[in-house]
Design brief:
Number of strands: 11
Shape: globular
Low-confidence stretches: none
Largest sheet: 9 strands, mixed
Radius of gyration: 16 Å
Structural class: alpha/beta
Distance between the termini: 18 Å
């Protein structure tokens, strides 16, 4: 069955990125094969991705979901229509201002695999519309103090049930089911 997941690496204080969108804090951290295995298992199950875009700038700037390690269709939310683009074997479909439609298209494309939601705004919108099945959070042991938050501004209480938790050398990994 297709699941819609929020999959994110965040800091202990809940930030996805630095205020300018920088992700340098994610790289060069110690890692262990156990941490890598947890992430690899999630990546292996992803069959489509939904994210945000600034027209085609996201693709032109090389902001490829998962750094191109997942060869899955990507559905990008945008404010203006644009023909699909194929780059490096990945098809990018642009969906104008209808997050539910983007998720539905991604679910169809994913088949029995998972749909991964990327970015704070996309994740919050999908949570508010009841489109999310699970949260998969990899938490890095760092505090940024300020930045782009995954859940700030959600404005609604959402109950979760812990499915799985593990911790190794560089991160803790948390998986929750969204209760409806």
């Amino acid at each position: 069955m297709t699941r819609v997941i929020v999959h994110a690496t965040v800091t202990v204080d809940g930030f996805l990125a630095e205020p300018d969108g920088g992700l340098d804090w994610m790289f060069g951290r110690p890692s262990s094969p156990d941490d890598d295995d947890v992430v690899a298992k999630v990546l292996d199950r992803i069959g489509a991705v939904v994210g945000g875009a600034n027209k085609t700038q996201t693709i032109e700037d090389g902001e490829i979901p998962y750094g191109g390690t997942i060869m899955a269709p990507v559905f990008l939310m945008t404010h203006s229509a644009h023909d699909p683009i194929e780059r490096d074997g990945i098809k990018y479909t642009f969906v104008v201002e209808d997050i539910a439609q983007a998720v539905e298209l991604a679910k169809q494309a994913a088949g029995d695999k998972w749909v991964s939601l990327l970015g704070g705004s996309i994740s919050r919108q999908c949570l508010l519309f009841g489109l999310v099945d699970e949260l998969h959070l990899d938490i890095a042991p760092v505090l940024l103090g300020k930045g782009i938050s995954l859940f700030a501004g959600l404005g609604q209480r959402i109950e979760l049930k812990r499915i799985e938790t593990s911790a190794f050398a560089s991160e803790s990994h948390h998986r929750y089911r969204v209760l409806r």
